[in-house]
Prior knowledge:
Structural class: mainly beta
Strand content: over 45%
Helix content: under 10%
Largest sheet: 7 strands, mixed
Shape: globular
Number of helices: 0
Distance between the termini: 40 Å
Oligomer: single chain
Amino acid sequence: QVQLVESGGGLVQPGGSLRLSCAASGIIFSIYVMGWYRQAPGKQRELVAFITSGGSTNVVDSVKGRFTISRDNAKKMVYLQMNSLKPEDTAVYYCNARKGPTTDWGPGTQVTVSS
């Protein structure tokens, strides 16, 4: 019963902030690479950020300096802090868990950046 559930999406103005959360169950959370992906209307799904089991992080250039990924292994949670949001950040954001050949996805949460 692997389950990833995102929360924290919503409507924000340009320049605003949101923090997305992903609650995981059914996996040994601490050994998984956790990631955030997004898919904008008419676009392919793209990687936004990931964090390894050891806490190393990487974010794509388009969000570098604005987004931060973090994890809390005790709580089995992964977060995406999004600051200085732009309209082009509008997308459905998906939580991802990966270990070797296994990959799991959450259902997504909508982020809309608009005036």
